[in-house]
Design a protein that fits this description.
mainly alpha; disordered N terminus; binds iron/sulfur cluster; globular; Endonuclease Iii, domain 2; 1% strand; two-stranded antiparallel sheet
Length: 293
């Protein structure tokens, strides 16, 4: 990776030297990873579709199952979407659980199987029947007066699950109400709301400054290396605190750093067991607290 440094803009608010250097390095990191570096990432499944209604359905399914290894997530969620071809949205408009149990027989993703998938599809189908699209439901749940996206996400998940609540649905559609970092739902919101690639920007009614970082194990670890995280648990408070730190670099769009930071982890460029060969060429080396020398 080339060690590129962005130009300092004189009208930016003054920050301590390390903060300013860190901002420059993170901006350079963002510029390094474009959509050509996306594989493997569940977002690549969403980018298959051109219709926003399909992108919403593909997005929430890909995000719900985005736990475990990224290549396996893409394979398993991709097979589900293949069976909903050509339009996952249209498939859900006439969804019947008994037919779904036959169509998705044999589905497995880690500890979730066909019954859990069908229950999730039933939630999405009910929301589409009532509101038209998932975006229309989120618009009902969204309140620009909230200080972050948390309360809107809580309302959205509660409306989606309704009276069908089960342990599996609580896991697949996480809510800030239970303190979880909600990495997968925050990821889904990033895809829908942010307007620069690889994200889709199909929910323009949501202010990107309200988004909260999707904190997974990679983001949590690398944020700690960079001095942006001091919480042990990757929970909602940690996600909120990291977002606040990143908002100092970009108040209008703090979550824009997520894709690039996450790439470092998914592509094994910054591994759990830090490696000298990675650190030697790392763009973040001079702002990292623990480079291997
Ligand atoms: S310097 Fe090494 S440990 Fe630090 S972020 Fe880069 S690869 Fe990771």
């Amino acid at each position: 990776m080339l060690n590129r440094v962005s130009t300092f803009e004189p009208d930016m608010p003054r920050m301590p030297v390390r903060g300013e250097l860190l901002r420059q390095r993170l901006d350079a990191l963002v510029a390094t990873f474009d959509v050509s570096t996306i594989e493997p990432d569940p977002l690549q499944l969403v980018l298959r579709y051109g219709d926003p209604r399909d992108q919403e359905v593909a997005g929430i399914l890909a995000a719900a199952f985005a736990y475990g290894r990224a290549d396996i997530v893409v394979a398993n969620a991709g097979r589900v979407l293949d069976r909903m071809a050509p339009s996952p949205y249209l498939y859900l408009t006439s969804f019947v659980p008994a037919e779904g149990r036959r169509r998705f027989a044999g589905f497995t993703h880690r500890f979730h199987k066909t019954p859990e998938l069908v229950a999730l599809l039933a939630c999405l189908a009910a929301a589409i029947r009532t509101h038209g699209t998932l975006g229309d439901l989120f618009r009902v749940c969204y309140d620009d007066a909230d200080k972050d996206i948390g309360p809107s996400l809580t309302r959205f998940v509660a409306a989606l699950i309704g009276k069908r609540r089960t342990k599996a649905l609580d896991y697949l559609l996480t809510s800030p109400a239970n303190g979880s970092a909600c990495k997968r739902m925050n990821l889904f919101l990033r895809w829908m709301v942010r307007t620069t690639p690889p994200d889709l920007g199909i929910w323009p009614f949501v202010d990107p400054s309200k988004l909260v970082m999707p904190v997974d194990t990679h983001v949590h670890r690398i944020a700690t290396f960079l001095g942006l995280n001091n919480r042990k648990s990757a929970d909602w408070k940690a996600a909120r605190a990291l977002t606040n730190r990143l908002a100092k670099f970009d108040p209008a769009d703090p979550v824009r750093y997520d894709f690039a930071i996450c790439r470092l982890g998914i592509l094994d460029l910054c591994s759990r067991r830090r490696r000298k060969e990675n650190c030697d060429v790392c763009l973040l080396r001079d702002v990292c607290r623990f480079p291997v020398r």
